[in-house]
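Is nicotinamide-adenine-dinucleotide placement plausible here? Inputs below.
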Amino acid sequence: MTWNTHDGKVAVVTGAGRGIGQAIAAGLAQRGARVMVVDKDDPTDTVEAIRGDGGTAESYIADVADEAQVAELADTVAGEHGGADILVNNAGIYPFVPIDDLDYATWRNVLAVNLDSQFLLARAFLPQLRTSGSGRIVNMTSNSIGLAVPHLTHYMASKMGVIGFTRALANDVAADGITVNAVGPTLSLTPGVRAAVPEELVRNLSNSQAIKKPGEATDVVGTVLFLTSADSYFVTGQTIMSDGGLIRL
Ligand SMILES: NC(=O)c1ccc[n+]([C@@H]2O[C@H](COP(=O)([O-])OP(=O)(O)OC[C@H]3O[C@@H](n4cnc5c(N)ncnc54)[C@H](O)[C@@H]3O)[C@@H](O)[C@H]2O)c1
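Reply from A.M.:
I modeled the complex. Tokens:
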């Protein structure tokens, strides 16, 4: 059964070419949103899958850490679709690098893609979200900020930054009817994780969750759908761990 809670809404989802972003894009489209599928790599697969399912989607290739590309993306969405109602800042990278091997360029790049991009996207789309009257921003963090995972100093710093950014931004935009929340997945079997983490580790971690199921890309979709719906109008500045009950805030 499909509940058309997002009918007529224009939703921008970054990093939606695969993994968690792809699942979120599909979920929003199933609820009736017109989804702007944004990725640095060609996200045609996501768009075709959504269209094949009867949904509406457009693809945009953009590097979310590039200020000029983000500004152009916002202009294009305004021009072609009348502006965004929903922004899901999902794009992120998580190279595992021990602190002694972590050069400054890698540190800066992780901060730029995971955190700076959320500022760039939010600022660029704010005028459109204000016009919407009930704008919704969801920022992707991670439950790893509460775990003893090695070799992720840069990543943890960025994902804690996401939580602080989310809390603070919620204050600045509340008067415009915009809510801002963060969602933290658990270690999940996405293409990015499959390339970087042995599946065994994902299964082992899931044993520490209250719900002992290995994480998958689709596990956070319901939380994002709630936080982007009208139902969540009184929820803002929050971080929700959609992680099987591993980390409790
Ligand atoms: N998978 C997990 O276990 C897990 C756990 C906690 C949090 N997260 C977070 O969820 C988000 C998605 O993770 P995933 O596992 O689906 O990742 P993934 O690597 O499978 O997919 C990420 C997508 O983002 C795109 N992307 C990367 N850099 C980009 C850039 N600069 N501009 C535009 N697009 C870019 C990639 O091309 C890719 O399509 C990330 O923010 C990640 O930190 C993931």
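Short version: The chain has a mean pLDDT of 97.
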